[in-house]
Structure formats: structure tokens, C-alpha cells
Amino acid sequence: MQIRFLNRKDIDVNKWNDLVASSIQSRIYATTLWLDHFSPGWKALIGDDHRVVMPLPVKKKYGIRYLAQPRFTQQLGLFSAQPVTPAIEKKFLEEVQNRYAFAEISINTDIEEDYNVNKFLIRNNHILDLSPGYPQLAARYAKSLRQHIVKAHRNELSYQSRGSVASVVNASYDLNAAKARVHYRYYQQLQKIAKILQPDGGCFVREAVASNGAIVSSGLFFRDRYRIYKIITATSPLGRSLKAHHFLIDELIREYAGSTLLLDFEGSNLPGVASFNTSFGPQTEHYYFVKWNRLKWPYKIFKK
């Protein structure tokens, strides 16, 4: 397979997005729109005229170009409409390592041990197939989740779709950004993407509202032809006591039950988040964090 290295300006947007959309590994994160907002200046490896593509989230510091996982981008890696053989995986990843001496990225490829990386972690994602009807989906809920949902209904919460993107983004930033160390400019990029995608249903807002009219939990969800992505949510202290976040996701599942979509929880290895996700009965899929550092001293110490 012939692999070409391309700068962003030289990428055929239509060919790229068509391949990503039809690929086995298809994710919204690999579209040109997403990459342009969260990894400006990204580059790519393209094999055999878009038979296989690999976005490269390039950053630059102290004159050194390296790879770093963009914000709100769970995973990248190789994308192809056909299964990617280990030989092709190896060829792409060796090409990446030859070009970049430092990388901290999350990819969809389970690399072998002989790639000589400094760190390799298996990470969990949780996905729920929404094709069954709601009763079948709810039957898989954990007992504790069913109890929380009963409590939420007793608290007279309502499910609404009138909220604005800005309100969710600002609420999520206020509640979560300091702990996660995410700069507001990345939330602004979410708003920009949402403004582009929302008119055609590519993203939407859902809210849980208390009986007094207060928004106690909200979420900004993105959607492509295969998945609904739970990108950001915000639940107030009052909402936590009312079990509003459990209610919000349950109502979202009720809304889309019987569809051909997957609900992508953007799963986590954090015990609390994983416990919440798995209480809805999803499947677990894996992606992989990889780090290598082949920089020469003294540059090697700029990233430890």
C-alpha cells in the first residue's frame, strides 16, 4: 500500500468525509469539520487514494511538531471501509513514529508490543444499541438505576428539548471545566460546530427541568448516521439530589428507542462515571491510549 502524507490544505474534503462516514470505525471525531475546530493544522496519512486514512492531530511547541489528542475527541486512528490488516496497521503506525518523535494520542487500533511505546493503556467506551423497543432496553437497567428513575418521576421532573446550546455549554464549563482543566475556548469551538450542525439535526440539546422551572440537568448531544454522542452534560447540585441526570439519559433512550442508532456514552475508566454508564446496560468497546517520546535531550524533558 502506498501511503501519502498530506497537509490539511491538500486534503480532498469530500473524499475524506465519505470514507470516514462509510468506514467500519466511523466516528464524528474524524470528520474534517471536527478536526478543523479542535485540531487546526491537522495533517493526514492516506493510503491508496482513501482506502485507509489516518488523521494526525499535530501541535507545535518550542519549534517541535508532535501529536496530541484534541479536546472533546475521544479517539482517532485508522479509518477504512474494509477490515485493516495488521500489516497495514503496522505500516501506518511506523510511518507516524518516523515522522513524530513525540505523541500522546488515543487510537482505535490495538497495537502490538513491538512498537516500542513508552505507555499503552486500554480504555473503555460504552455504547447502547437503541434498536430494541424501550421496554426491552429498560429491562436491562440496573436495579439501582430503576430506583433512581422512580425517584426522579416522584420529583416531577420534565424532559424538554427547548434549551439552547450556549446554556448547556456555559453550565458544563462552570460545573466541570476547572476540575477537568479545559479552557473555555474549547467550549466555544463546541458552540461553533453545534451552530453548523444543529439546523440539520447533527446536534441537539435535551434538558431535565424541575417543577419550579429550574434546569437541573442538560446535555449537548451530537449525532451522525450511526451514533448519538454524549459530548457534554451539566447537572446542578439540586439536580444530583433529584436524580436528574439519570432521568435525562433514560428519557433520551426512550425518545430514540427503536431507532438504528447507538448511544455513545463516551465511556470512562473513572469508577463513578463507568458505574453510571454501565447501569444502563451498554456494551463495552475498547480504544487505546499510546505515548512515545523519542526526542533528544534537552527537548525530551519538555514532555515527560
Short description:
This protein has 304 residues and is an alpha+beta fold. The strands form two sheets. A ten-stranded mixed beta sheet has the order 4-5-7-14-8-13-12-11-10-9. It has a four-stranded antiparallel beta sheet with strand order 1-2-3-6, with helices on one face. The protein is built from ten helices and 14 strands.
Keywords:
single chain, alpha+beta, 14 strands, 304 residues, Aminopeptidase, 2 domains, 4-stranded antiparallel sheet, 35% helix, 10-stranded mixed sheet, 28% strand
SSE topology sketch:
Blueprint: E1 3-7, H1 13-22, H2 32-38, E2 43-47, E3 52-56, E4 58-61, E5 64-68, E6 79-80, H3 86-99, E7 102-107, E8 119-129, H4 134-138, H5 143-154, E9 158-160, H6 165-180, H7 184-197, E10 203-209, E11 215-223, E12 227-235, H8 237-242, H9 244-256, E13 262-264, H10 271-278, E14 283-293
Parallel strand pairs: 5-7, 12-13
Antiparallel strand pairs: 1-2, 2-3, 3-6, 4-5, 7-14, 8-13, 8-14, 9-10, 10-11, 11-12
